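Rotation project, supervised by the postdoc (A.L.). Task for the rotation student: set up a whole-complex structure prediction and record inputs and outputs verbatim in this book. Inputs entered:
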Amino acid sequence: MSAEVREARELAPAVLRVSELSKRYASLIAVDRVSFAVRRGEIVGLLGPNGAGKTTIIDMLLGVLAPSSGRIDVAGFNLARQRAAALERTNFAAVYAALPGNLTVAQNLRVFGLLYGVRGLTARVAALIAEFDLQSLRDRRCGVLSSGEQTRVALAKALVNRPELLLLDEPTASLDPSAAQVARAHVQAYARAGRCGVLWTSHNMHEVEEVCDRVLFLSRGRILLEGDPKTVPREHGAPTLEELFIRLAREPLDPRDPR
Amino acid sequence: MRLRAIAGVMLRQFYVMRANPVRVLPLISWVAIDIVLWGFITRYLDAVTGSRIHFVASLLGAVLLWDFFTRIMQGVTTAFLEDVWSRNFLNLFATPLAISEYVAGLVATSILASLAGLAVMLALAIAVFGLSFFSLGIALVPFLLALFLFGIALGVFASAVVLRFGPASEWMVWPLPALLCPFAGVFYPLATLPAWMQAIARALPPSYVFEDMRAILAGRTFASGPLLAGLALAVLEIVLCGGFFVRVYRYAVRTGLLARYSAESAS
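Outputs recorded:
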């Protein structure tokens, strides 16, 4: 990434601002005073071992899980107080949130387009079907599609409202390398055009290095460190991002550690 | 409320019904079976009792109205259950869709589906068994309205129960109309019931409808006051059941039940 591009992204306005976000279940603290921002045109990786709190954060950003405390702003709209305005500008795809299998590809895109209040929906659905190479599948039910095909449909749905904030929870988890590469290319192209900021969770560190501009390491509900995925391993004495991930997952750093 | 969002909820239900006749068949099959069964029973009763009581009008009319109420309630619940069965809550509630828009979409779907059932019921009852609603006159309108409103209230309540207790609680909500039927005095005057059942009946709008229906068919003048009270009660119960649904929804958002909705996560 050139210095000019990096500078432009750093100056871009934040589409997501999370402040002191926490989620507690009785004695369990799932997310503990997490703060971060995602800028327009930026892809931020949210990394961490299973149970670190990644999906809990995504659920709170989607408005389907109420935070215990803290604040979420999407494109300047407070999620708690201006839910509809914030969610109109957000969308997501997750491996565990398949679209209704008894609707066809085109029907799902049309229904969710209406729910998101998309104008010019017929043209938008046609454009997405062409963009994600879904022409031959448009009248097939989503429940009978392969994992790769379902992921393409889920990504098409995730872009139906031209979101300013795109949340992707392990979007390529069930894809073969070729299909995963195509999926990454779609999201990168959309984000790089400055249309949205992306928060991306993945356990594939090679993918994270390729796609993300910045990563946040999460463990036990707290952000331990953040940085450029290409330089952050060396800064913390690890040869690769994967090694750093393993080390953090097994021996979480003290977040007050100044190194 | 955004009409496009409500249209989205309805369109999903329309697509599901259009694609699968199995979902359309119950809208008309059970009511048709009820009308045929009760049509012959009432015809037989008319024959053996010498027509002192007009059973076709009273019993078959009651069956038809009760089935109309049941269809409305089940229409709301079935539309909600479509989202349960397809594990669609996360996709659905991560959109800007407001709860009021979602419930409005379910209710509108139920109205359209129930009209199909009502048309079949009326056609069969009138054409085959000679049932005439002209004897009820203009009172038929508030009768249908009260049953319609209470059907919506019960459908919203049943949906809230399934949301709170998980998909397995579906079995608890299907028999709700059958559970209420003895209390509502569908086939007999409320005076037949013991006092404690009459007390429950007074909280059920259908009980006012069926009391008035019998009064009209018996040639008595019916007082509009109780029917208006039944209507007001139905409106109040819609508000209460809507509030109950919102309360359960907020609980589900607070506890994480909505984000991970399944039989295993509900408790």
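Student's summary: The mean pLDDT of chain B is 87.
Supervisor addendum: Chain B has one domain: 3-255.
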